[in-house]
Amino acid sequence: MRWVLPEDRIPTAWFNVTPHLPAPLQPPLHPVTREPIGPDDLAPLFPMALIGQEVTTDPWVDIPGEVLDVLRSWRPTPLVRAERLERALGTPARIYYKDESVSPAGSHKPNTAVPQAFYNRGEGTARLATETGAGQWGSALAYSCALFGLECKVYMVRASFEQKPYRRVMIETWGASVEPSPVDDPASPGSLGAAISDAVRDVVTHERSHYALGSVLNHVLLHQTVIGLEAKEQLQLAGERLPDIIIGCCGGGSNLGGISLPFVPDAGVELLAVEPTACPTLTKAPFDYDFGDTAGLTPLLAMYTLGHDFMPSSIHAGGLRYHGAAPIISNLVQHGRMRAVAYPQLKVFDAAVQFARTQGTIPAPETAHAIRAVIDEALAAKESGEEKVILFSYSGHGLLDLGAYDDYLHGRMTDA
Ligand SMILES: Cc1ncc(COP(=O)(O)O)c(C=O)c1O
Q1: Integer angstrom CA distances of residue 204 from 41, 126, 374
Q2: Measured from the CA of 106, which atom of ligand 1 is nearest?
Protein backbone atom coordinates (compact mmCIF):
# COMPACT_ATOMS: atom_id res chain seq x y z
CA MET A 1 0.00 0.00 0.00
CA ARG A 2 1.08 3.57 -0.56
CA TRP A 3 -0.22 6.91 0.67
CA VAL A 4 0.07 9.87 -1.66
CA LEU A 5 -0.86 13.37 -0.53
CA PRO A 6 -2.44 15.77 -3.03
CA GLU A 7 -0.18 18.51 -4.44
CA ASP A 8 -1.73 21.16 -2.22
CA ARG A 9 -0.66 19.26 0.93
CA ILE A 10 3.02 19.96 0.28
CA PRO A 11 4.46 21.63 3.42
CA THR A 12 4.64 25.42 3.03
CA ALA A 13 7.17 25.97 5.84
CA TRP A 14 10.33 24.13 6.90
CA PHE A 15 10.57 22.83 10.47
CA ASN A 16 13.45 24.27 12.49
CA VAL A 17 14.63 21.80 15.12
CA THR A 18 16.99 24.30 16.83
CA PRO A 19 14.54 25.32 19.60
CA HIS A 20 13.89 21.61 20.35
CA LEU A 21 17.48 20.38 20.63
CA PRO A 22 18.54 18.83 23.96
CA ALA A 23 21.34 21.46 24.29
CA PRO A 24 22.21 24.65 22.37
CA LEU A 25 24.35 24.20 19.25
CA GLN A 26 27.97 25.29 19.63
CA PRO A 27 28.84 28.10 17.20
CA PRO A 28 31.06 27.49 14.14
CA LEU A 29 34.56 28.96 14.58
CA HIS A 30 36.68 30.98 12.16
CA PRO A 31 39.35 28.72 10.57
CA VAL A 32 42.18 31.15 11.41
CA THR A 33 41.16 33.11 14.53
CA ARG A 34 39.11 30.27 16.09
CA GLU A 35 36.59 32.88 17.26
CA PRO A 36 32.84 32.36 16.57
CA ILE A 37 32.13 33.43 12.98
CA GLY A 38 29.64 36.08 11.93
CA PRO A 39 27.55 36.46 8.75
CA ASP A 40 30.30 38.46 7.00
CA ASP A 41 32.71 35.54 7.31
CA LEU A 42 30.30 33.33 5.39
CA ALA A 43 29.30 35.92 2.77
CA PRO A 44 32.00 34.90 0.23
CA LEU A 45 30.50 31.40 0.20
CA PHE A 46 26.73 31.68 0.68
CA PRO A 47 23.89 34.14 -0.02
CA MET A 48 22.59 36.09 2.99
CA ALA A 49 19.22 34.30 2.92
CA LEU A 50 20.94 30.96 3.57
CA ILE A 51 23.28 32.44 6.18
CA GLY A 52 20.16 33.71 7.96
CA GLN A 53 18.61 30.25 7.85
CA GLU A 54 21.83 28.76 9.22
CA VAL A 55 21.43 30.66 12.49
CA THR A 56 17.70 31.25 12.78
CA THR A 57 15.83 30.19 15.91
CA ASP A 58 12.40 30.78 14.35
CA PRO A 59 10.40 27.59 14.79
CA TRP A 60 9.21 27.61 11.15
CA VAL A 61 10.70 29.10 7.97
CA ASP A 62 8.35 29.82 5.05
CA ILE A 63 9.15 28.07 1.76
CA PRO A 64 9.10 30.59 -1.13
CA GLY A 65 6.35 30.04 -3.73
CA GLU A 66 8.84 29.65 -6.58
CA VAL A 67 10.60 26.85 -4.68
CA LEU A 68 7.27 25.14 -3.96
CA ASP A 69 6.41 25.30 -7.66
CA VAL A 70 9.53 23.26 -8.45
CA LEU A 71 9.25 20.87 -5.49
CA ARG A 72 5.66 20.13 -6.53
CA SER A 73 6.92 18.48 -9.71
CA TRP A 74 7.69 15.37 -7.61
CA ARG A 75 6.44 16.19 -4.06
CA PRO A 76 4.69 15.16 -1.89
CA THR A 77 6.56 11.86 -2.28
CA PRO A 78 4.76 8.58 -1.55
CA LEU A 79 4.80 6.82 1.82
CA VAL A 80 4.93 3.10 1.09
CA ARG A 81 4.30 0.13 3.37
CA ALA A 82 6.86 -2.61 2.69
CA GLU A 83 4.36 -5.44 3.13
CA ARG A 84 6.21 -7.97 1.00
CA LEU A 85 9.39 -7.43 2.98
CA GLU A 86 7.39 -7.75 6.24
CA ARG A 87 5.93 -11.06 5.05
CA ALA A 88 9.32 -12.39 3.94
CA LEU A 89 10.74 -11.56 7.36
CA GLY A 90 7.70 -12.96 9.18
CA THR A 91 7.71 -9.91 11.44
CA PRO A 92 4.78 -8.35 13.29
CA ALA A 93 6.46 -4.96 12.68
CA ARG A 94 4.84 -2.57 10.21
CA ILE A 95 7.51 -1.06 7.95
CA TYR A 96 6.92 2.23 6.13
CA TYR A 97 9.28 4.12 3.88
CA LYS A 98 9.27 7.61 2.47
CA ASP A 99 10.25 7.29 -1.19
CA GLU A 100 12.65 10.14 -1.98
CA SER A 101 13.97 8.28 -5.04
CA VAL A 102 11.19 9.73 -7.21
CA SER A 103 12.87 13.14 -7.64
CA PRO A 104 14.43 14.03 -11.02
CA ALA A 105 17.93 13.29 -9.71
CA GLY A 106 16.80 10.10 -7.96
CA SER A 107 17.34 11.09 -4.32
CA HIS A 108 16.39 13.51 -1.54
CA LYS A 109 19.17 15.92 -2.58
CA PRO A 110 17.03 18.24 -4.79
CA ASN A 111 14.95 19.17 -1.70
CA THR A 112 17.81 21.51 -0.75
CA ALA A 113 19.46 22.01 -4.16
CA VAL A 114 16.34 23.80 -5.42
CA PRO A 115 16.10 26.38 -2.60
CA GLN A 116 19.89 26.88 -2.64
CA ALA A 117 19.82 27.69 -6.36
CA PHE A 118 16.74 29.90 -5.84
CA TYR A 119 18.26 32.03 -3.05
CA ASN A 120 21.56 32.36 -4.91
CA ARG A 121 19.87 33.55 -8.07
CA GLY A 122 17.83 36.02 -5.99
CA GLU A 123 21.05 37.62 -4.67
CA GLY A 124 22.76 37.88 -8.06
CA THR A 125 24.97 34.77 -8.01
CA ALA A 126 25.82 33.66 -11.56
CA ARG A 127 27.62 30.41 -10.81
CA LEU A 128 27.70 27.71 -8.11
CA ALA A 129 30.53 25.29 -7.35
CA THR A 130 30.20 22.17 -5.26
CA GLU A 131 31.62 18.75 -4.41
CA THR A 132 29.99 15.40 -5.00
CA GLY A 133 30.80 11.94 -3.68
CA ALA A 134 28.62 9.37 -5.37
CA GLY A 135 27.26 11.96 -7.80
CA GLN A 136 23.78 12.28 -6.29
CA TRP A 137 24.35 15.76 -4.88
CA GLY A 138 26.20 16.97 -7.97
CA SER A 139 23.36 15.85 -10.20
CA ALA A 140 20.75 17.46 -7.90
CA LEU A 141 22.57 20.79 -7.96
CA ALA A 142 23.16 20.63 -11.74
CA TYR A 143 19.40 20.06 -12.23
CA SER A 144 18.50 22.96 -9.92
CA CYS A 145 21.01 25.33 -11.54
CA ALA A 146 19.54 24.49 -14.95
CA LEU A 147 16.08 25.51 -13.69
CA PHE A 148 17.28 28.82 -12.21
CA GLY A 149 19.70 29.75 -15.01
CA LEU A 150 22.95 29.40 -13.01
CA GLU A 151 26.26 27.99 -14.20
CA CYS A 152 27.39 24.98 -12.18
CA LYS A 153 30.77 23.39 -11.56
CA VAL A 154 31.02 20.02 -9.80
CA TYR A 155 34.20 18.59 -8.25
CA MET A 156 33.60 14.85 -8.19
CA VAL A 157 35.56 12.49 -5.91
CA ARG A 158 37.92 10.81 -8.39
CA ALA A 159 37.03 7.21 -7.36
CA SER A 160 33.34 7.90 -8.21
CA PHE A 161 34.24 9.88 -11.35
CA GLU A 162 35.96 6.75 -12.63
CA GLN A 163 33.43 4.19 -11.28
CA LYS A 164 30.24 6.06 -12.18
CA PRO A 165 30.34 7.59 -15.66
CA TYR A 166 26.55 7.81 -15.87
CA ARG A 167 26.23 10.16 -12.89
CA ARG A 168 28.77 12.40 -14.64
CA VAL A 169 26.72 12.22 -17.84
CA MET A 170 23.58 13.20 -15.90
CA ILE A 171 25.38 16.21 -14.44
CA GLU A 172 26.61 17.24 -17.89
CA THR A 173 23.16 16.71 -19.42
CA TRP A 174 21.81 19.34 -17.03
CA GLY A 175 24.54 21.67 -18.29
CA ALA A 176 27.10 21.58 -15.47
CA SER A 177 30.79 20.83 -15.88
CA VAL A 178 32.54 18.11 -13.89
CA GLU A 179 36.15 17.79 -12.82
CA PRO A 180 37.69 14.89 -10.87
CA SER A 181 39.02 15.79 -7.41
CA PRO A 182 41.57 16.32 -5.96
CA VAL A 183 42.48 18.47 -8.97
CA ASP A 184 46.13 18.71 -7.91
CA ASP A 185 46.72 14.99 -7.24
CA PRO A 186 45.57 12.72 -10.09
CA ALA A 187 46.91 9.64 -8.29
CA SER A 188 44.57 10.11 -5.31
CA PRO A 189 41.11 8.43 -5.26
CA GLY A 190 39.87 11.56 -3.48
CA SER A 191 37.51 12.22 -0.60
CA LEU A 192 34.51 14.44 0.03
CA GLY A 193 36.68 16.64 2.26
CA ALA A 194 39.22 17.18 -0.54
CA ALA A 195 36.46 17.91 -3.09
CA ILE A 196 34.98 20.54 -0.73
CA SER A 197 38.43 22.18 -0.60
CA ASP A 198 38.53 22.26 -4.42
CA ALA A 199 35.06 23.82 -4.61
CA VAL A 200 35.83 26.46 -1.94
CA ARG A 201 39.09 27.41 -3.68
CA ASP A 202 37.16 27.69 -6.94
CA VAL A 203 34.51 30.14 -5.68
CA VAL A 204 36.95 32.54 -4.09
CA THR A 205 38.77 32.87 -7.42
CA HIS A 206 35.68 33.29 -9.66
CA GLU A 207 33.46 36.37 -9.97
CA ARG A 208 29.84 36.15 -8.75
CA SER A 209 30.40 32.56 -7.64
CA HIS A 210 29.12 30.90 -4.51
CA TYR A 211 29.59 27.52 -2.91
CA ALA A 212 26.74 25.06 -2.26
CA LEU A 213 26.92 22.21 0.25
CA GLY A 214 24.69 19.14 -0.06
CA SER A 215 24.58 18.14 3.60
CA VAL A 216 25.93 18.86 7.12
CA LEU A 217 24.88 22.52 7.56
CA ASN A 218 21.78 23.61 9.48
CA HIS A 219 20.07 25.18 6.45
CA VAL A 220 20.49 21.97 4.43
CA LEU A 221 18.84 19.86 7.14
CA LEU A 222 16.13 22.53 7.47
CA HIS A 223 15.26 22.20 3.75
CA GLN A 224 15.08 18.42 4.06
CA THR A 225 12.40 18.52 6.79
CA VAL A 226 9.70 18.38 4.10
CA ILE A 227 10.38 14.62 4.17
CA GLY A 228 9.43 14.14 7.82
CA LEU A 229 6.60 16.66 7.75
CA GLU A 230 4.88 14.84 4.89
CA ALA A 231 5.57 11.45 6.49
CA LYS A 232 3.89 12.54 9.74
CA GLU A 233 0.70 13.37 7.88
CA GLN A 234 0.85 10.25 5.71
CA LEU A 235 1.33 7.94 8.71
CA GLN A 236 -1.92 9.28 10.11
CA LEU A 237 -3.64 8.49 6.81
CA ALA A 238 -2.23 4.99 7.17
CA GLY A 239 -3.91 4.76 10.58
CA GLU A 240 -0.74 5.04 12.65
CA ARG A 241 -0.23 7.57 15.44
CA LEU A 242 3.53 7.93 15.57
CA PRO A 243 6.33 5.57 14.52
CA ASP A 244 8.16 3.69 17.28
CA ILE A 245 11.46 4.12 15.47
CA ILE A 246 12.76 6.23 12.57
CA ILE A 247 15.81 5.01 10.66
CA GLY A 248 18.02 6.81 8.13
CA CYS A 249 21.48 6.35 6.71
CA CYS A 250 23.91 9.07 7.69
CA GLY A 251 26.62 10.60 5.51
CA GLY A 252 26.55 14.28 6.42
CA GLY A 253 23.11 13.74 7.95
CA SER A 254 20.65 15.46 5.62
CA ASN A 255 18.20 12.67 4.71
CA LEU A 256 18.33 11.37 8.28
CA GLY A 257 17.69 14.89 9.57
CA GLY A 258 14.96 15.40 6.98
CA ILE A 259 12.93 12.42 8.05
CA SER A 260 13.63 12.56 11.79
CA LEU A 261 13.88 16.20 12.91
CA PRO A 262 10.12 16.91 12.82
CA PHE A 263 9.75 14.00 15.31
CA VAL A 264 12.40 15.23 17.79
CA PRO A 265 9.71 16.84 20.02
CA ASP A 266 7.81 13.50 20.08
CA ALA A 267 9.65 12.01 23.05
CA GLY A 268 8.60 8.38 22.53
CA VAL A 269 9.93 8.15 18.97
CA GLU A 270 13.33 6.45 18.80
CA LEU A 271 15.77 7.86 16.20
CA LEU A 272 18.48 5.69 14.62
CA ALA A 273 21.42 6.73 12.41
CA VAL A 274 23.10 4.10 10.24
CA GLU A 275 26.63 4.42 8.87
CA PRO A 276 29.28 2.17 7.28
CA THR A 277 31.85 0.51 9.56
CA ALA A 278 34.42 1.80 7.03
CA CYS A 279 33.54 5.40 7.99
CA PRO A 280 32.28 5.16 11.60
CA THR A 281 31.79 8.83 12.45
CA LEU A 282 28.92 8.64 14.96
CA THR A 283 29.78 5.23 16.39
CA LYS A 284 33.54 5.56 16.92
CA ALA A 285 34.84 9.12 16.37
CA PRO A 286 35.37 11.76 19.07
CA PHE A 287 33.18 14.87 19.34
CA ASP A 288 35.36 17.89 18.57
CA TYR A 289 35.69 21.07 16.56
CA ASP A 290 36.99 20.20 13.08
CA PHE A 291 37.15 21.59 9.56
CA GLY A 292 34.53 20.59 7.02
CA ASP A 293 37.21 20.06 4.37
CA THR A 294 40.65 18.53 4.01
CA ALA A 295 42.60 21.74 3.40
CA GLY A 296 41.15 23.53 6.46
CA LEU A 297 39.47 26.35 4.48
CA THR A 298 35.98 26.07 5.97
CA PRO A 299 34.83 27.16 9.44
CA LEU A 300 35.35 24.68 12.28
CA LEU A 301 32.17 22.82 13.20
CA ALA A 302 31.34 21.12 16.52
CA MET A 303 30.66 17.54 15.46
CA TYR A 304 31.66 13.89 15.65
CA THR A 305 34.66 13.68 13.32
CA LEU A 306 37.17 11.11 12.12
CA GLY A 307 39.54 14.00 11.34
CA HIS A 308 39.39 16.25 8.28
CA ASP A 309 42.27 14.36 6.63
CA PHE A 310 40.51 10.98 7.05
CA MET A 311 40.77 8.99 3.82
CA PRO A 312 37.99 6.38 3.69
CA SER A 313 38.39 3.12 1.81
CA SER A 314 36.57 3.05 -1.53
CA ILE A 315 33.37 1.39 -0.30
CA HIS A 316 30.49 1.70 -2.73
CA ALA A 317 28.34 4.06 -0.65
CA GLY A 318 30.29 7.15 -1.69
CA GLY A 319 27.69 9.44 -0.14
CA LEU A 320 28.45 8.00 3.32
CA ARG A 321 32.21 8.51 3.17
CA TYR A 322 32.33 11.90 4.92
CA HIS A 323 34.65 12.39 7.90
CA GLY A 324 32.14 14.41 9.96
CA ALA A 325 28.41 14.51 10.72
CA ALA A 326 26.02 17.46 10.83
CA PRO A 327 26.30 19.49 14.06
CA ILE A 328 22.54 18.98 14.58
CA ILE A 329 22.83 15.19 14.24
CA SER A 330 25.98 15.18 16.41
CA ASN A 331 24.13 17.18 19.09
CA LEU A 332 21.23 14.69 19.13
CA VAL A 333 23.61 11.72 19.41
CA GLN A 334 25.82 13.38 22.03
CA HIS A 335 22.82 14.09 24.25
CA GLY A 336 21.22 10.67 23.83
CA ARG A 337 18.21 11.71 21.70
CA MET A 338 19.49 9.66 18.73
CA ARG A 339 21.34 6.35 18.56
CA ALA A 340 23.82 5.21 15.89
CA VAL A 341 24.86 1.82 14.47
CA ALA A 342 27.41 0.82 11.82
CA TYR A 343 27.32 -2.04 9.32
CA PRO A 344 29.92 -3.58 7.01
CA GLN A 345 29.33 -3.41 3.26
CA LEU A 346 28.46 -7.08 2.55
CA LYS A 347 25.68 -7.13 5.18
CA VAL A 348 24.36 -3.92 3.65
CA PHE A 349 24.18 -5.44 0.18
CA ASP A 350 22.53 -8.62 1.58
CA ALA A 351 19.76 -6.28 2.78
CA ALA A 352 19.66 -4.33 -0.51
CA VAL A 353 19.13 -7.51 -2.51
CA GLN A 354 16.51 -8.83 -0.08
CA PHE A 355 14.65 -5.53 -0.46
CA ALA A 356 14.88 -5.61 -4.27
CA ARG A 357 13.62 -9.20 -4.39
CA THR A 358 10.60 -8.45 -2.20
CA GLN A 359 9.63 -4.81 -2.78
CA GLY A 360 10.99 -4.59 -6.33
CA THR A 361 12.95 -1.36 -6.37
CA ILE A 362 16.75 -1.29 -6.24
CA PRO A 363 18.05 1.01 -3.49
CA ALA A 364 21.15 3.22 -3.58
CA PRO A 365 24.01 1.66 -1.57
CA GLU A 366 23.64 4.53 0.92
CA THR A 367 19.92 3.80 1.37
CA ALA A 368 20.70 0.10 1.78
CA HIS A 369 22.46 0.94 5.06
CA ALA A 370 19.12 2.10 6.46
CA ILE A 371 17.42 -1.01 5.06
CA ARG A 372 19.94 -3.27 6.84
CA ALA A 373 19.01 -1.66 10.16
CA VAL A 374 15.28 -1.82 9.33
CA ILE A 375 15.52 -5.56 8.67
CA ASP A 376 17.41 -6.12 11.93
CA GLU A 377 14.84 -4.07 13.90
CA ALA A 378 12.00 -6.02 12.26
CA LEU A 379 13.69 -9.33 13.12
CA ALA A 380 14.16 -8.17 16.72
CA ALA A 381 10.44 -7.32 16.80
CA LYS A 382 9.69 -10.85 15.57
CA GLU A 383 11.81 -12.25 18.41
CA SER A 384 10.00 -10.13 21.02
CA GLY A 385 6.57 -10.32 19.38
CA GLU A 386 6.29 -6.50 19.32
CA GLU A 387 4.05 -4.81 16.72
CA LYS A 388 6.61 -2.06 16.11
CA VAL A 389 5.99 0.74 13.61
CA ILE A 390 9.20 1.39 11.69
CA LEU A 391 9.63 4.41 9.41
CA PHE A 392 12.68 4.85 7.21
CA SER A 393 14.00 7.17 4.54
CA TYR A 394 14.35 5.55 1.13
CA SER A 395 16.84 8.26 0.23
CA GLY A 396 17.64 7.22 -3.33
CA HIS A 397 17.51 4.57 -6.06
CA GLY A 398 20.51 2.54 -7.09
CA LEU A 399 19.95 2.40 -10.84
CA LEU A 400 23.25 4.15 -11.48
CA ASP A 401 25.04 2.01 -8.88
CA LEU A 402 24.73 -1.29 -10.71
CA GLY A 403 28.52 -1.73 -10.79
CA ALA A 404 28.33 -2.17 -7.01
CA TYR A 405 25.53 -4.74 -7.36
CA ASP A 406 27.56 -6.53 -10.05
CA ASP A 407 30.52 -6.77 -7.65
CA TYR A 408 28.27 -8.08 -4.88
CA LEU A 409 26.42 -10.62 -7.03
CA HIS A 410 29.63 -12.00 -8.53
CA GLY A 411 31.68 -12.34 -5.37
CA ARG A 412 34.03 -9.43 -5.97
CA MET A 413 32.86 -7.30 -3.05
CA THR A 414 34.71 -7.12 0.25
CA ASP A 415 33.83 -5.32 3.47
CA ALA A 416 36.61 -2.73 3.28
C1 LIG B 1 20.98 8.19 -1.86
C2 LIG B 1 21.76 8.86 -0.78
N3 LIG B 1 21.41 8.67 0.50
C4 LIG B 1 22.10 9.25 1.49
C5 LIG B 1 23.20 10.05 1.24
C6 LIG B 1 23.97 10.60 2.39
O7 LIG B 1 23.89 11.96 2.54
P8 LIG B 1 23.10 12.62 3.74
O9 LIG B 1 23.63 12.01 5.00
O10 LIG B 1 23.35 14.04 3.62
O11 LIG B 1 21.67 12.25 3.55
C12 LIG B 1 23.58 10.31 -0.07
C13 LIG B 1 24.73 11.20 -0.37
O14 LIG B 1 25.16 11.39 -1.45
C15 LIG B 1 22.85 9.69 -1.11
O16 LIG B 1 23.19 9.89 -2.38
Answers
A1: 13, 13, 43
A2: 1
